Every structure is written in structure tokens, then in C-alpha cells.
Amino acid sequence: MNEYDSNRIYDLAKNIGFNKTDIKNEADCFVLNTCHIREKATEKVYHEIGRLKKSFRNLKKPLVIISGCVAQAESEEMIKREPYIDIVIGPQSYHKIGDAILNYQRKKNKINTTDFDVIKKFDELEKIPISQNKTSSYLTIQEGCDKFCNFCVVPYTRGPEYSRPFKQIINEAEALVNKDVKEITLLGQNVNAYEYIENDKKYKLSTIIRELNNFKNLKRIRYTTSHPNDMSNDLLDCYNNCEKLMPFLHLPIQSGSDRILKLMNRKHNIKYYLETVKKLKKINSNIKFSSDFIVGYPGETEKDYKDTIDIIKKVGFINSYSFLFSARPGTPAANKNKEINDLMINKKRLENLQNILGNLQFENNKKYINKFCDVLVENKLVGQNKYFGRTKFMTPVIFETKNCKNGDVLNIKIISSNKNNLFGLHKANYKEKAA
Ligand code: SF4
Questions:
Q1: DSSP code at position 398
Q2: 152 CB near ligand 1 (under 6 Å)
């Protein structure tokens, strides 16, 4: 979501005359768009500012803006602690960034804007042209969360669940497709909780997917991040009826132990999760899954940990995110320090879990060797006669071809693989090399 927000922040700054630069010391405005989901996020921001100060030691000070969830969580405190910061702006009020910059330039007064103004934000963003020019684009449809998992900071930094008006989303999708976007990933902290009601009609994530599926020039649809409890039947049905919906689902489970899921306040259990996986596999036996795992949650026993390993093997996740538990200030789990295992135990568990996930990923990639797969071309590699694209399952593919353009879907023969990538050749090229 921060990538989507960063793009929109750029569009807003562009609207008042700013342009991107790759030359750091030439910039007269820096926006650090921050994420608060992991530990030490705040400290990282101050370190980054330290580096900025060094770069600009003998130059005119640039305008420094902190946006995103760290800005939301720390607010006014940031300006007090680090006078080099000029503007602090939260994730639900960044539509005001243009006015904030102009005001600061006029009056030189420090600005702190961290209201939860999510409706106005999307109304304002709708008026600003999108400068996106990639093959694959994000589109935020929903923000915030009402689930309150005990470890998570999102409900506090992004606020309660909010679903954008259906029409507004479709308009933005049309604008993206008109800019040659071929793949749209619908975004939300709880994307499958999307629900918008207008004139007694209820719009859900499935309604959006079905609508986008009719877009002639759009090739692929994805969505992230989902909560297992919101995998409703109408959404599962989309895997039956919408050929552009990719057969790959990121479905965070966090732990394989019902006891830990309860302590986390996740509101789903293992049986339910596995039933959802089973239903989806019944619809499409090729569908693949990735997930999120927290290792060492307060109170995790060896048995709980083994249950997590079991579920990883059972589902066969093809790529996943896994982290050691880290206490986020202000969340209920932050008070459970005494119940956290010895760090060495948790680190060992994480290492073992990551090895298992890595092996699954490696073995899955190996299965493609000597097979063909459809790849959406995203870009040409700099300085090489090779291209980069992704399979339906998001796996990166680096391949050679004589002739292609971004946005093409090519049938690529996979020649080799490693844990993270597939390597291949486009048909015509393959014959030539094989001869
Ligand atoms: S459902 Fe996701 S975003 Fe919401 S509180 Fe839980 S982990 Fe955080």
C-alpha cells in the first residue's frame, strides 16, 4: 500500500510543479513515506534523516516531509525531536500534501497533519491525474481494519475499515488501463472485507473483480491482503467465473496453532483455513498460496511451533513472509514481554521455518524446468538483452526473446531455476539456441 501511496503522493506534488529526480543532492524536497509494521521503524526514519543531513551539509536545506504510518504514530513528537523535519503528514491526510508544501514555503511554520480524513482523501485523489506508467499497478479499494489482531498496529495507524465508492474504483481502474496498465492488484489492509452500499445495492470485492474481468485491455487481476474469515463464497466463485483473476492467493495465517491464533485474536482457526484452501483447490486444482508467519509469539510452545511447520507442509506455500514477533507499542501483545521465549530459541525456530519455506519455493520452481508458462512482460533488464516478467503465480521470470514489448503475455520455455527466479527463452529464440 505504501507503493500506491508513494505514487499518489508524487502525483500530488507533481500537480504543484515538482518532478522526480534520481540525483539526491539536487532534490529540494524529500518525502520519506514510512511503514510502522516492523520494529525500529521510527529509528530508521531518524537514521535516514541523519544521512540526509550529511548529504546536504554544505548545500541549501531541502524541505523534509515524513508521511505514512510512522508519521501517524509519532505525530508532533517527530518535529520536536528532529528540527530538520518540516512537515509530518499521516496516511489518511496525505491528499493535503500540496497545500502543506505551499503553506510551508510561504510561512516557514512547521506543519503536522495527522487527521483520519479518509473519505476526503480519496475524493481529492480522484481529481489528480495518475502518472503511473508501469505494466502492473496497485489500486487501493479499502483501508484500515476492524479486526484488531493483538500484535498489529494497523487499526491504530490506518484507522477503522473504510471502503471506497465502487464507481470511484472503476473510474480509477479505467484510467490505469488507458495508461496501458495490464495487471491491477486491488489493495486493502483487509481487502476482502471491502463492502460499499449505494441505493440499497451492496458492492463487494467480488463485484469489483467481476467488473474488471470485463475490461477488454486488462489481462490480470490480483488482490491483497486478505483475512481468512472474509473469503466469502461469492469471492471464491470468482475463481470459477473470472479468467483474469490469477490463481495465486496470499492468505495470511500467522500460526498453525489454534491456541496461538486465539492469543493473537485472529478470529479464525486452522480447520476453517484448511477448508478454504480445499474449496479453492476444488475450484482450481492449480491454485497456489503464500502466507505470513509470526514466529515466537508470546506463549508459543514447541508444540505450537511444530503445528505451524505442519501446516506449511500441508498447504505447500510457494512463497511467504515470516518474521520474529516484535512488540509494536500500543498493541495488546506489547505487554506480553514476559511470555516471550528466549531469543535464541525463537531465532532457531525462525531459521528452520524459513529453510522449510525456502525449500518449498525451490522445489516448486524446479517443477517448471522444460515446461512452458505464460509470463506478463514487465520490463527489459537494464544493459542486457533480457526481459523481466511474472508467471500467474507471481514468480519472477528472466528470459530472452527477439521481439516483445511491456504488457505482452508470452509463452516462455523455462530452462533453469533457483529459489527466487525462473530463467527461460521465448519459443522462436528457443528453437534457434537448441539447433
Ligand atoms: S487483520 Fe491484518 S491488518 Fe487487521 S489487525 Fe489483523 S493483521 Fe492487522
A1: E
A2: yes
Which one-letter DSSP state was computed for residue 175?
H
Q: Tell me the per-residue pLDDT of 254-288, one tens digit each, with 9 for 90 and over.
A: 999 999 999 999 999 999 999 999 999 999 999 99
**Cβ of 288 below 6 Å from ligand 1:** no
- Cα distance between residue 202 and residue 235, in whole Å: 14
Q: Does a cis peptide bond (omega within 30 degrees of 0) precede residue 225?
A: yes
Q: Quick one: pLDDT band at residue 429, thresholds 50, 70, 90?
A: low
If one residue of 149, 192, 267, 294 were mutated to test the ligand 1 pocket, choosing by the most ligand atoms within 8 A of its CB, it would be 149
Q: Give the DSSP H/E element, type plus range, for residue 382.
A: none
For residue 250 and ligand 1, the question of a CB distance below 6 A is answered with no
* Whether the Cβ atoms of residue 60 and residue 25 lie closer than 8 Å to each other: no
> Phi and psi of 163, rounded to 5°?
-110, 130
Lowest mean pLDDT among 123-132, 135-144, 227-236: 123-132
pLDDT at 432 over 80: no
The pLDDT value recorded for residue 434 is: 58
Q: How far is the CA of 144 from the centre of ligand 1 (A)?
A: 9
Query: Which residue intervals of 179-232 are DSSP H helices?
Result: 205-213
CA of 231 to the centre of ligand 1 (A): 15
206 lines ligand 1 (CB under 6 A): no
